[in-house]
Amino acid sequence: MSDRLQAFELKSLLMTSTVRPAPTAPAGSAVPVSADGSLLPQTLYEASDDVGARYQLPRYEWNQVGGRHTSRLRLRTADEDPFGPLGWLSIELLAVSAVDARFAMRSIDHTASLRLGYEMPVVAAGESVPEAWVGPWENADPATRGMTRLLIGQRVDGGWFMHGFGKCHPSDCDWGETTAMLSGDALIGVYPFGFKVTTITARRSGQTLLVDVLDDYTDADGRKDRLSQYVMGRSAATSPAQPLIWETLGPLNPVGASVHRCVLPFHAQEDYDRLYQIVTSPVHRARLEVVCKATVGQRSWQQWWIRDRIKVQPVRPDMDLVQLNPAVLKQLRESLVAPAPKPVPPPVAAVPVAPVSVKTVGRTSPLVMHMTRSPVLSVSTATLATHLTPLAAVPTVANLRIDRSSVGSLMLNEGLLLQRHSADLDVVLSKEEATRITRTLPRRLAIDKRGRPVLVRREVECVQSLNSTFDPQTDGYMFDAPVDPSQAHVLFRHDLDADGQSVTFFQDSMARDQVYYEPQEFRLARSDAHPFLPSLVFAITDVVTESESLAYRVRLAFQARPYLGQAFRLLARQHFGPEARLTALTPRSARLTLSVPPAEGAVAEPLERPAAVIRFDEGVTDELSLDEAQFVRLAASFQSPSGIGMQGWVSATISDGTQVDIPLVVSLKDNTGTAFDPPHLRADADGVPGHHAVSLRNRIESPVRINAVHPVELGAWNDPVGGQLHRVTALPLDPPPAEPVGPGQTVDLRYEVRPASFPLVSIVPALDVDIQPDLALLMGQLTVTEAFTEATFDVQVSASPLFFGAGALMSLRIEFDEGPTVTLDASVPTRQVTLRKPVIARILGLEPGYRYRLIEMDAQGGQRVHEGLAGVGNLQVSLLQV
What we know:
mainly beta, 8-stranded antiparallel barrel, 11-stranded mixed sheet
């Protein structure tokens, strides 16, 4: 926990070297208290500063005035800037709050942003739009009194047919099948019913079907001829599973007391046509997600402390830090069940509450607590207050004793005393015995003056979903007419083959440079921020060290991102063009199955992971708990030739109802992302026109082996001299280097650019690499909890005397994670420091590593701080580039 008592889930530490989320509530301000850390709309949460006040998050719905939506999709008018955007999508939502006269109501401070999700039909590349008509269509108006359904199909001979259905009771009237013929952009079928002749004319409008039904009554019938018009969409029950596309729209900003607006500009007619079809065609099943982020308060005994290197600050006066023996902490976390709070009548809503789809992100327990360095903690008995306010619903600590039974007396708030120890065992322990018993991690617990877990703050998300399909007939005032309403918005499917493998790509029919792909597999990602670690973190919890024995558990979290090999990336850019934007395709449904290292005596079996978060644009994130045997097996697997610690697959339904199983690999050897700094380009030393050299520096902690160097597509170039259009390619001149590139080392790659006259600016090498993980260094960096044994080791810290003196540095300060600090200067360039051996090194039998930060002090009192550094063995300090 920080001085602001911020709490984070283990998964939130992925892909970043330090945790500094921007809180939505200022430090020290009141926050809503959530028992489980969740956040839901129109739910009342007790205020942290007033038992008579309640917080709530509003429910968002489409804003209407006089029964008409105020959202618009419009084009630029003649009065507006002709050089500005072509048009705007303006979305207005109404924030609806609950009302409860029993409490002082407060609104939860939050940020809100919008994203638009929609499904995309898939057709084979080259398939004509009329062929995409085949299938069942349903009337967009379920209350229609005319045509309800229309089935369109093609016979073996290529001829067309229609099969219509009309509204009848108790079931629809079956009109039967009739022959249809194409006439221009229309498909026409005729039904001779005897008393009338019904002519059906169907035209495509994007992904909808516009159907005109003309009833021509006979003279004998006497009724007046009638023309009916219907809008039909694909049958939801029978349409195939379709890929799901997400488009970020931007922040939702208040424009009034309850109205909020988001405006998205666009600059091309194709963007307008695409948006129009998305929000008007039922086939896209468009939905709007409102992502709300807010700070909530929570009390939990699940407190594990993250290492940090922030300046030590005083402990807050309203909290205590106590050391517990492990059995007491275990009872608090596992044995005690907090009394259920008294039922509270539901709030009275200000307006009728419509069904809203809501999902909450961030409810996984346990929490990982993050704090500044604290003063040395006493192991003496802590006596705490035992009475709580009637509204409290968490257990309180009455007495924390150290005794031979390793237990204590615990009390719940309503006077219920739980005796957990024998008074006969309350004997005075020697200092050595007390130290041995309390040498356990995590052993620090933050409590308030009432003996409850201290109230921590955490950032959570609440996602509200709104249906976003509008009827162009009844809601036509929301739109300007599209220029080409008949153009279908679909994904064209392309299957590309390379190296004996096949990958499916999907090209947007209205934005041809946008290409989606099915990932070959999911891999751990490397962070783009220093120290560029893989997206895998460990929290070693419940550690007990007594003599030679060691007991512990490990929680781990990982994030695997979609991977597409360089051979397929090159092939895709050759097929779709150098400017193609490659994005992993999000399926409509997906689930993760993972093989976890088995426990002692158990057999490894693939297990479905329902709590895993699967988003192809952000990756697959999961969190799990391992015992001692499982963790040791995992570490051994990381060191095996394959380097695979865990593996499984993501089962996804991507298109045409076909299910694919995409491999997922948790390995420290094969990661997504780059292991090198941005490339440095220069002319090659051989002086040959078109020959260039690219320098790459290994920026990660482990050696990297380059297995293959691929050609790089640089785009199309129109030669100003000859006027000829060229496709520019950079071809590697040499095979991959024979030796791995060590940490901090540089390698040169040579290329030939064709044509040689192309004005080259940069080359981003396309490489196949594998990492040779330095486990001793890496595992310490990936372990985020304070976990040290009683064993110590010495590290000699030294710096070159050339670093100090006039015009150079005055001193270097090295602050180690666990507490010790050494200062080096011209008079003392070498010191020795004693560090505690990390538990992770003892568990895995590794050379102990350490983490530290480096502070450079100049003569003017200025400082340069370098965070997130790590080492193994003696430390020879080097000056780093900022």
